[in-house]
Prior knowledge:
There is one protein chain. The protein is mainly alpha-helical and 94 residues long. It has a domain at 20-66. Helix content is 62%, strand content 0%. It has helices at 19-32, 36-51, 56-66, 77-93. 0% of the residues are buried.
Amino acid sequence: MRVKRDKPRMIRTQIQLTPKQSEGLKRLSEERGGSMAEWIRKAVDSLIKDSAGPDWETRKRRALAAVGIARSGPDDVAENHDAYLADAFYDWKK
């Protein structure tokens, strides 16, 4: 029979800290409670979350907020883009 674990399985990892980092981490653990390893795991989680960038909903909201904020010429570009492109190439070749 398997025993259900409440905590996720941990992988033992060895790291090296500078004396200043070690002292600060010990002080943090004493002042706020928790082990040094727990604070390191929290820092790693935060770093991973920050490096992942915004989630899909945030990116979608930002993109939709940018729609229509600028005007730059004719209103019929969607329908007549080929003609505008041909004109631009013609002007470029001159």
